[in-house]
Write a structure and sequence with these properties.
It is built from 29 helices and 10 strands. The protein is globular and about 95 Å long. The strands form 2 sheets. The protein has a 6-stranded mixed beta sheet with strand order 1-4-3-2-5-6, with helices on both faces. By secondary structure, it is an alpha/beta fold. β7, α26 and β8 form a beta-alpha-beta unit. The longest helix has 23 residues. It holds the Pfam family Mut7-C. Keywords: Exonuclease, Hydrolase, Nuclease. This is MUT7 Exonuclease.
């Protein structure tokens, strides 16, 4: 807005005998101010607000102000969001009679203006005097969850009341139609968004956001435990992918002393076990004998009291016979070290933090089964060529805090990840790193300094023949391999034994099976990396894989985005693009309209930015194989934009100069400038937003 207009507005107010009444008269006689954005009315209102601050004698009081407040209240329900706060401030609505304000909001509510009533209540801070269930129910039916969260955001007591109400609606005997019936004619009513499953997810989200004790919502927690029990039985008896001890740990911690869950456990056991098996587990989970069928109670009497069930079931005999079919650690058991003291850990770090070291890194945490809170790392595994270190993070963090050295562990982890001379191998490292940050808050934002990281997840989409179908050839009941286990099977010959993956990693002491699983998960990364670097061509990878993975050091810090699941950065932080000759003569200039590209799925931000500039862009979806880019490029004559390992494969499938490797550590704007410069694309003003976004 020009200075001249602002000055004219202020002069106009100075000439008015009653600026507040004058503004209302203008607003009442015009509809221009009701539009979205910065209308003329918006500028007049905001200028008056500033003018009043400079002329404190202007605001009215007493009866005259009450009349003005009554008039402005009637306008607020039609008012754009950006004018609410200025008008409330100008007319001092926070000082108005509270009962009068509540009555006005109630009138809006009875007219069916539920959203407007809630927004005005938030602005005027009326929530403590309102019925939270009454105000929020129609908003939930209209799928206005964000507004509900804002409504209770500043009031812990209202948060608890809302959560208790939602939990009551999730009670199995509760009829949700009793809630929805009064609102059948509601505009924008979305009944499909109002059921127990959706409400349950909302409750868990609110519990986490507002840091409320989950015990406040017993129905939702109980239902989640019931689903967890069903899932555990599926993993154990259908997939057969959990050992008995691992499964038993989770069953006990899930059921506890809850009578409802104990009853459900017995019903599930009767479906999958004989009477003796049901009796063994009923005793282990301390199920009262009166809850058991007669035949099971009889078997329970026959069993001797013992602290640990040592009997091995037929299923476990089958499991033992299958161990030889899985990947086996090539190092002796005494070379696996479980570290719980800082004296041991410092000796470990001396070995790990050696220049030129290659380290397999993995982490384990207790599965949440959908409960509240982010997973906290319970075990950090560091594998070297001859030994594996398993760090008990909760114990080490507790000791460091007791000694007043909370930064000790984050310091060592940062040293490891920021050293470009040490190659860190992982699989799906972005998920591991986010859990590590949740465990050590001091590591927040330190990911940007990480160098020398190789995420082998990217190899999944590069290794020839790597697909779920390959493992269907397995005999027996074993499930198809996937993820890291499938990569291990294809590269090393046998899959990982993943039956301990869902263990309770916080329980101490760890079982021997857990220790071996944790060590294998980290050590196999070293063997995969070594095999791929020695013979990349036999796995369908570029012949220069070794050169691109073990490049020269770079001083530039790696950005967090380079650790995504679509690419494998080099161990030194170098861009994995292999040698690329710059053309002796730059290409002839072209317009964005003449430039057609296909962006790999790790460059979707770049693709959207180029499209804004008028470039013809095709984007790969997250689930697409990288090789689809080559197929599109050949069919439609497009240039491939990719990064990391996929560049090695894709550049050989298209003509020279038709595949370009982008630096993933840059932001989309810098990436776009890099692409435009390389292909000599000249952008004009008319090109910007010339294509549908």
């Amino acid at each position: 807005v020009s200075r001249q207009l602002k000055e004219e507005i202020r002069r106009g107010f100075a000439r008015l005998e009653d600026p507040l009444a004058g503004l209302l008269a203008m607003l009442e006689s015009s509809s221009n101010w009701k539009g979205k954005g910065h209308s003329l009315g918006y500028y007049i209102i905001t200028e008056l607000q500033l003018w009043i601050k400079a002329h404190p004698a202007v605001p009215q009081s007493g009866t005259k102000m009450k009349k003005l407040q009554a008039r402005v209240l009637g306008m607020l329900s039609q008012c754009p969001a950006n004018l609410l706060d200025p008008l409330i401030s100008i007319y001092q609505l926070h000082t108005a009679d509270r009962n009068y304000l509540l009555e006005h909001v109630s009138h809006l509510y009875l007219q069916g203006n539920y959203k407007e009533a809630a927004i005005l209540s938030i602005k005027l801070k009326l929530q403590p005097d309102q019925d939270v269930e009454k105000m929020c129910t129609p908003l939930l039916l209209q799928d206005k969850v964000n507004l509900v969260e804002d409504y209770v955001a500043e009031y812990p007591e209202l948060q608890r009341r809302l959560l208790q109400t939602l939990d009551t609606w999730c009670e199995p005997s509760f009829n949700i139609r009793d809630i929805t019936r009064p609102y059948q004619g509601l505009s924008r009513y979305k009944p499909e968004k109002f059921n127990r499953r959706v409400l349950s997810k909302l409750v868990f989200r609110l519990l986490e956001r507002f840091n409320v004790d989950p015990a406040l919502c017993p129905n939702v927690i109980n239902q989640r435990h019931l689903r967890t029990l069903n899932y555990l039985f599926y993993k154990r008896f259908v997939e057969k992918t959990m050992t008995e001890e691992n499964w038993g740990d989770h069953i006990q911690s899930t059921v506890g002393e809850n009578r409802c869950l104990q009853g459900h456990l017995v019903q599930l056991l009767l479906r999958h076990c004989d009477a003796r098996g049901v009796a063994r587990w009923a005793r282990r989970c301390q199920v009262p004998p009166e809850m058991l069928p007669w035949a099971v109670a009889k078997e329970l009497q026959k069993l001797h009291i013992q602290d640990r069930v040592e009997e091995v079931t037929e299923g476990d005999n089958y499991e033992s016979s299958q161990k030889k079919d899985y990947y086996q650690l090539p190092i002796p058991r005494e070379n696996i070290h479980f570290l719980q003291t800082w004296e041991e850990t410092l000796q470990c770090w001396e070995k790990v933090l050696q220049p030129g070291q290659v380290v397999g890194v993995d982490m384990e945490w207790k599965p949440s089964f959908g409960m509240v809170g982010k997973p906290r790392v319970a075990l950090l595994q560091l594998a070297l060529k001859d030994e594996v270190f398993l760090l008990d993070l909760p114990r080490l963090l507790e000791q460091a805090e007791a000694e007043g050295e909370k930064e000790k562990l984050p310091h060592f982890i940062q040293m490891l990840y920021s050293d470009a001379a040490i190659t860190k191998l992982g699989y799906g490292m972005s998920g591991d790193l986010s859990s590590l940050v949740a465990t050590c808050s001091a590591l927040k934002d330190k990911e940007k300094q990480m160098q020398g990281v190789v995420d082998l997840l990217a190899v999944d989409k590069q290794v020839d023949g790597l697909s779920l179908q390959h493992s269907h050839e397995e005999k027996g009941v074993r499930q198809p391999e996937k993820g890291l286990s499938l990569l291990v099977q294809h590269v090393l010959g046998k899959p990982l034994d993943k039956r301990e993956q869902l263990s309770n990693w916080e329980k101490r002491p760890l079982r021997e099976e857990q220790i071996l699983y944790a060590a294998s998960d980290a050590y196999c990364l070293l063997e995969i990396y070594e095999r791929l670097c020695k013979d990349p061509e036999s796995f369908g990878l570029g012949s220069d894989l070794t050169e691109s993975l073990v490049g020269k050091q770079t001083k530039k810090p790696r950005a967090k985005k380079q650790l995504n699941k679509q690419e494998a950065p080099s161990p030194c932080g170098q861009e994995c693009q292999g040698p690329r000759r710059e053309p002796s003569h730059p290409p002839a200039p072209i317009s964005p309209q003449e430039f057609s590209v296909v962006c790999d799925n790790m460059l979707q931000g770049l693709g959207r930015y180029l499209r804004c500039l008028g470039v013809d862009v095709r984007l790969l979806d997250n689930e697409d194989d990288h090789r689809k880019a080559a197929e599109i490029a050949r069919q439609e004559g497009r240039v491939i934009l990719t990064s990391g390992l996929p560049y090695q494969t894709l550049r050989s499938q298209v003509g020279e100069g038709r595949c370009f490797s982008v630096n993933c550590s840059e932001k989309a704007k810098e990436q776009a400038l890099q692409v435009l410069k390389h292909f000599n694309v000249q952008v004009s003003l008319s090109d910007i937003f010339s294509r549908c976004q």
